[in-house]
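fold-stage: in
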Amino acid sequence: MIIREKIQNNERKVLIPYAAFSASTKGRHLEEEDDEIRTPYMVDRDRIIHSKSFRRLKHKTQVYIKTSSDHYRTRLTHTLEVAQIAKTIGKGVGLNEDLIEAIALGHDIGHVAFAHNGEEVLNKLLPGGFKHNVNSVRVLTRIEKQGKGLNLTSEVLDGILYHSGFSTSAKKSYTLEGQVVKYSDKIAYVNHDIDDSIRAGLLKEAEIPIELLKTLGESHSTRIDTLVKNCIYSTLKNIDSNKPEVTLSSDIEKTLSELRNFMFENIYKGVILQEERNKARFVLEQVFIHFYNHPENMPEFYRTIVDKEGLYQGVADYIAGMSDDYCLATFNKIYVPKFVIY
């Protein structure tokens, strides 16, 4: 028996009926032969890990721009934390961990430099707006491999597309695995951003509303433990009631939402980081304006996109792919005077 088939047989034995079985995938845009060792979701996971866009996440900001410490999260370490939390929830519920891992590793691959500041800049400059989740799918389907894309499965792309947003009314992934990643993303970033903010001296534990800590826990690990277990048990309860969806219990979801709002008000949108956010926006805007006015200075691949899909799209693709360091270096090359006489 082919090893992939053995793995797929094991899925049927250990996963719950509502799981996404790799043998039943809706498939890829371009049909291809199955791998003899790996299931389709394992192939997708590996393709994402080996992509250039995934590697660039190590130099893209999570919250804090140009830190001098190696201990703060980057977009890459955030992605790894999301994947680990999601796999734990998936294992507890009985879902397909390979699909969960592929979605989690690719969910933020379309993020712009300088955290959400970059997304806000492109959203303002582009006529059709800009959303990082939509761009993640674009990067994986239209940008990687010089425009060929990675030819990922429908389930992975759907999970990536619908991972964003906190509102319960937002559209959900059609797989429970995708829904797990959506919750895991929130669990990860709210808690690790608290951890980083305390490390940076911008937040004290005592400043967090005590009622939120009493419900979720007074330490980083305790809060994650509370949220992960609650997500598992709430989801299993839903499944037992023939309502297959991933949720937190109403009280825990409300508390997490309040903690997230606290972070937005005091850290993400707070006055402490306002000056650095403004600098980041200025840099991105100026780099965008330069290449919009001089598309001939972009690499050939992006000039081809300009010819096929228009100037805004080509420039947006080029800017969105830049890491923080590359964007700053580009800004300096364009706008900062150089010594030409010694």
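fold-stage: in (second)
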Amino acid sequence: MGQPLSIDLRSRVLTAVNDGMSCRAAAARFGVAASTAIRWQAQRRETGDFAPKPQGGDMRSRRVEERAEDILAVWEASKDISLEELRVALIEMGLTVSVAGLHRFFVRRGMTRKKRLAMQSSRTAPTS
């Protein structure tokens, strides 16, 4: 993902617009796209600020986290359930989530979903 353009460039473009230059002319003068200058002007008009907005990050986990109690309740009812089986049970409850999304949900809580053997394997026999 690219980096946002500097505040200095943004302020110079918007100062030129304030001084009577059109957004397109100011964009051409400072070497940015006309749509960029128009968006900066619109952002300043709407919010009063022209700083870059945050980039990246997880945008979908909020929906899953809102239903955390439901997910944990299904998991508590049957702890040996696979992530795919859990996903199907959640679809029946109205929550569509991927297996990878469920995996990240459990990782955020420090919960492992790995199934372990009941007994440690024997080391008496040589392996090839």
